[in-house]
Amino acid sequence: MGPSLLGLLGFSSCDHFPLLPASEYGTPYGEFKVDINVTDESGKPLKNIAVTPVLLHAPNFDIKREELTTIKTNENGKASQTYDNWWVDDVRMIFEDDNGVFAKDSADFKPVQTKPGDKHWYVGEKTVSGSMKLKKE
């Protein structure tokens, strides 16, 4: 049967309805970036401090707390990492010195949208940046 005969029978393609939105399938995705500087109380950068981001989700979210992979500070005291994670509300950063010189500490951060989404499945990038001063044991 040709297209014109199918049209007479009431069959048509979705291409003929430009006002309807196209169907999309998939899962939302985006990035979460950590960019934290860690120093001692005098401002000297601390190397090899373990920094663990813990995502604290909203009360109506099924998972309340999500611990991400720990990263270590470099020789400049900077901990940087990008994670494939799109659902970020509040973040608690846990700071630990494996050598035991500095006391374990934590601080809460509010992520900032640093890249916009595309109004489809990509939700963009959120970043937590700042600094933390650790005290000696």
Molecular structure report:
The chain is built from one helix and nine strands; from the N terminus they run αβββββββββ. It has 137 residues and is mainly β. The mean pLDDT is 85. The chain has one helix at residues 3-8; strands at 29-40, 49-56, 65-67, 71-72, 78-83, 90-97, 105-109, 112-115, 122-134. The longest helix has 6 residues, at 3-8. The N and C termini lie far apart (83 Å). The chain is elongated. Strand 8 and strand 9 (122-134) form a beta hairpin. Strands 2, 3, 4, 6 and 7 form a five-stranded antiparallel β-sheet that branches. Strands 5-1-9-8 form a four-stranded mixed β-sheet, with no helix packed on it. Helices cover 4% and strands 45% of the residues.
Helix and strand topology:
Blueprint: H1 3-8, E1 29-40, E2 49-56, E3 65-67, E4 71-72, E5 78-83, E6 90-97, E7 105-109, E8 112-115, E9 122-134
Parallel strand pairs: 1-9
Antiparallel strand pairs: 1-5, 2-3, 2-4, 2-6, 6-7, 8-9
